[in-house]
């Protein structure tokens, strides 16, 4: 891991931690957000740690498993990290679905937190 730029190391570690929490206990995700954080989930907007955790905890499935296909990380000019994830998820007994997710990570008080999070299933409904 030492040969990767630091932003890739931080981004990859964050992604691993995020999906481990999401797949095992979504209620614990509050630790990675702050009160100023924003989430866009399938076009719905949520602001603040409490609203985000309420949304993620209330998603209509009992168990979920994410599989990451690819992830890309970039440093931003203001010392943040932007991360894009492409993968697949399986919720309960539903078919496997593709998804895309983007995170903006910021270092606050020596901890990396997610200030912005955007999620979309990779569905193409042309009706």
Characterise this structure.
Its main location: cytoplasm. Residues 10-121 form the NTF2 domain. InterPro entries: NTF2, NTF2-like_dom_sf, NTF2_dom, Nuclear_transport_factor_2_euk. The protein is an alpha+beta fold and 127 residues long. The protein has a single domain, classed as Nuclear Transport Factor 2, Chain: A, CATH 3.10.450. Helices cover 22% and strands 46% of the residues. The chain is built from two helices and six strands; from the N terminus they run H-E-E-H-E-E-E-E. The protein has helices at residues 6-24, 49-57; strands at residues 33-41, 44-47, 64-75, 81-91, 97-108, 111-121. It has a six-stranded mixed sheet with strand order 2-1-6-5-4-3, covered by helices on one side. A hairpin with a 5-residue loop joins strand 3 and strand 4 (81-91). The longest helix has 19 residues, at 6-24. The protein is globular, with a radius of gyration of 15 Å. The N and C termini lie far apart (45 Å).
Write the layout of secondary structure elements.
Blueprint: H1 6-24, E1 33-41, E2 44-47, H2 49-57, E3 64-75, E4 81-91, E5 97-108, E6 111-121
Parallel strand pairs: 1-6
Antiparallel strand pairs: 1-2, 3-4, 4-5, 5-6
Domain NTF2: 10-121
Pfam families: NTF2
Subcellular location: Cytoplasm; Nucleus; Nucleus inner membrane; Nucleus outer membrane
């Amino acid at each position: 891991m030492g040969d990767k730029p630091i932003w890739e190391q931080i981004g990859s570690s964050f992604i691993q931690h995020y999906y481990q929490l999401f797949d095992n206990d979504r209620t614990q995700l509050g630790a990675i957000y702050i009160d100023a954080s924003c989430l866009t989930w399938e076009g719905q907007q949520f602001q603040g740690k409490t609203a985000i955790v309420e949304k993620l905890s209330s998603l209509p499935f009992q168990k979920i498993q994410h599989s990451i296909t690819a992830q890309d990380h970039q440093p931003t000019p203001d010392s943040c990290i932007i991360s894009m994830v492409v993968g697949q998820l399986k919720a309960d007994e539903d078919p496997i679905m593709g998804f895309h997710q983007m995170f903006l990570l910021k270092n606050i008080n020596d901890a990396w937190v997610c200030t912005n999070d955007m999620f979309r299933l990779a569905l193409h409904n042309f009706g």
